[in-house]
Specification:
mainly alpha, four-stranded mixed beta sheet, 62% helix, 647 residues, 4 strands
Length: 647
């Protein structure tokens, strides 16, 4: 059954609430246990009988446990505030450079890049863990700061189809909102387990003292031992919470991987190889105890006590959901020989094959895209047709631009070249300003890339930006400040901001600012469609005018979109074209981004309905739709046209 992005976002929010409830229950139980420990020590310290009810001990236990657990959780969450990169480094990951010559790493990068292009998200940085088992994870707060990491075992033992299945599984976590939940869970589990660390410190501190009363030292040792044991109980609670929150979502991610690739043998083969490999999916890094729920398969040795503590469903059950005929016999696993694998150089698709030059995108017949509800269902969804389209985009990219997108130095120049105007007089002005403000080597590299970028079909421009995102994330903070300023200078050289420039700025700010200018995570605050009717009308007005040049057609498209959003009566009317500005459009999107997933679905349906009013889609409309969905954190795959009928 197809998964729905907005339903899964709602499910992730409910899981977050469930996680908070489990966390509070665990703290209450730990407070009761610590109170019992203090009471036992108090009763054993003297001959006089002591009452079971000691409010002063409870007042000591409750704030103490709350301070230790809450403080440790807050510390860990703050430590991971930079997103997926912090998690990958914590687990010993090493980033794979875009310029790698290792054929296994190159194959991995190609698979991740193709999946990202198919999903309509920037390409995430890729890490490799020095672990012999077969495992992987995705981490981050949002697609903009996500990373994908795989173990060395994945590179050594998996075929391309199997690796694609594993990567598709991890992209499901990226698209379904699991990553934010997983990072929060790391923080809470660390807090619960902090009691054992505190108990160990108390034991060492009391055992190392050379002076003082023996009974005082003995009491500290007993207190430390008791707290240490209670910390182990906390670790048990942590494993139970991991299992309760993550197990069902692994089944969902397996199903999504099959849905994305239409190849159950890919992910199924990877799971079977885990069963047949001596190391299985084990992760030896000690930090895996906090992050076991994030992995593709169980990171711990064994399946847990009677499966109760397992962070993942049993391996055989996962395989049989994909392959009902599986007999339980795991294959002998051998390292993959690249002599038998497909070459990982570019698959020779003719450059720009079936990618016509624009001003307009080829007409997309309504059956090819579906109705507005179908367009909304494509958010956060990938299918084989989109993966094939992404492979064609990836392999049809000129070598000089693909290589430039993989190097941090050249990636900045690539963005500058994308912003240069085709009109010679304006381009000369932009180059003069770039020469004055950018580094000399950036200016020289931009000049080198101008010609191939100008020859690039318009359909390839945003995918090229997505490919460059991992390299752009490697900038230093100082380089990012200079880069951000130069992008603004190149844009305002022409007083009229183009839709492509606006979309490019949205993508850059959305996904680079998350790393270089961390912002406070906000919760959705809007749940009423009627209260958001005005900002929705602002967005639909610009969409209507961009797709329908005639006033009566634009008004019809606007009304169709508003009916798709409200579903009934509304008071908003299409404003004149001169009153529709990108500044108001951007402000409206920032407001709409604070809405709950169900409202975001209505917004996407309304935008798709407005765009499809004349049953064809232009490049300007696709760029606006990309900006809308990107701002709303609703990744939309590229529109895949059927026959190339020019508008």
């Amino acid at each position: 059954m197809a998964t729905n992005f907005f339903q899964q976002q709602d499910s992730a929010r409910r899981k977050t609430l469930q996680l908070v409830v489990y966390f509070v229950l665990a703290i209450l139980i730990l407070i009761a246990l610590v109170y019992g420990l203090l009471l036992t020590l108090s009763m054993s310290s003297g001959p006089e009988p002591v009452s079971w009810w000691q409010p002063e001990l409870l007042l000591l236990a409750a704030p103490g446990v709350g301070l230790v657990v809450g403080g440790a959780s807050a510390f860990k969450v703050a430590q991971l505030s930079s997103g997926g990169q912090a998690v990958a480094l914590m687990l010993g990951g090493e980033e794979v450079p875009g310029t790698t010559t290792d054929p296994r790493e190159k194959r991995l990068l190609n698979v991740v890049e193709e999946m990202a292009l198919a999903a309509g998200v920037p390409v995430p940085p890729v890490y490799v863990l020095a672990e012999p088992g077969i495992n992987a994870f995705a981490a981050g707060y949002a697609p903009g700061d996500a990373v994908v990491a795989v173990s060395q075992g994945c590179l050594d033992y998996l075929t391309r189809d199997e690796l694609q299945g594993v990567v598709a599984h991890e992209f499901s976590h990226i698209l379904n909102g699991d990553m934010r939940l997983n990072i929060r869970l790391i923080g809470l589990i660390f807090g619960i387990m902090a009691l054992s660390i505190m108990g160990r410190m108390l034991m060492f501190a009391s055992g190392g003292r050379s002076s003082g009363r023996n009974d005082s030292r003995g009491g500290l040792v007993l207190l430390g031992l008791g707290v240490f044991v209670l910390g182990l109980v906390g670790a048990l609670f942590g494993r139970l919470i991991m299992a309760a929150v993550s197990r069902q979502r692994e089944y969902l991610a397996d199903a999504s991987a099959v849905q994305f690739t239409r190849n159950p043998d890919g992910i199924g083969g990877a799971l079977k190889k885990i069963g047949g490999l001596a190391e299985g999916s084990r992760i030896d890094n000690p930090q895996a105890a906090e992050a076991g729920h994030m992995f593709f398969a169980n990171a711990f040795a064994g399946e847990g006590f009677a499966g109760l503590l397992a962070t993942h469903p049993p391996l055989v059950k996962r395989i049989r959901r994909l392959d009902p005929q599986f007999n339980g016999q795991f294959p002998e696993v051998r390292a993959v020989s690249f002599d038998r694998e497909e070459p990982e150089g570019p698959r020779r698709v003719p450059p720009f094959a079936k990618m016509p030059r624009l001003p307009g995108l080829p007409q997309v017949p309504l059956p090819a895209l579906g109705f507005a509800d179908e367009a909304a269902s494509r958010v956060g969804h990938v299918d084989p047709r989109e993966i094939s389209h992404a492979q064609a985009l990836h392999d049809g990219m000129p070598d000089v631009l693909r290589v430039a997108a993989q190097e941090p130095f050249s990636a900045r120049a690539l963005v500058y070249a994308l912003l240069l105007d085709p009109r010679p007089d304006l381009r000369d002005l932009q180059l003069t300003q770039l020469k004055a403000g950018a580094e000399p080597q950036d200016f020289a590299e931009t000049l080198r890339l101008v010609a191939p970028v100008q020859a690039l079909p318009d359909t390839h421009r945003l995918p090229l930006l997505d490919l460059a995102m991992p390299a752009l994330r490697q900038m230093s903070p100082r380089q990012h400040r200079t880069f951000r300023a130069q992008v603004e200078v190149l844009m305002i050289a022409d007083p009229r901001l183009s839709l492509f420039e606006y979309t490019l700025r949205c993508v850059l700010h959305r996904h680079l600012d998350a790393q270089f200018l961390p912002q406070r995570q906000t919760r959705p605050v809007h749940s009423s469609p009627q209260k958001l009717a005005h900002p929705v009308a602002t967005v639909l007005a610009l969409l209507a005018w961009e797709g329908q040049p005639k006033p009566n057609q634009a008004a019809r498209a606007f009304d169709t979109g508003m009916r798709g959003y409200i579903g009934g009566d509304y008071t908003q009317r299409l404003p004149p074209r001169a009153e529709c500005s990108l500044a108001e459009f951007d402000a409206a999107l920032q407001t709409l981004n604070q809405s709950v997933p169900a409202i975001k679905r209505r917004i996407v349906v309304a935008c798709a309905t407005c765009i499809l009013a004349n049953q064809q889609v232009t490049l300007r409309e696709t760029e606006l739709l990309r900006a809308i969905c990107d701002t709303l954190d609703c990744p939309l795959p590229p529109l895949v046209a059927g026959e190339a009928e020019r508008r």
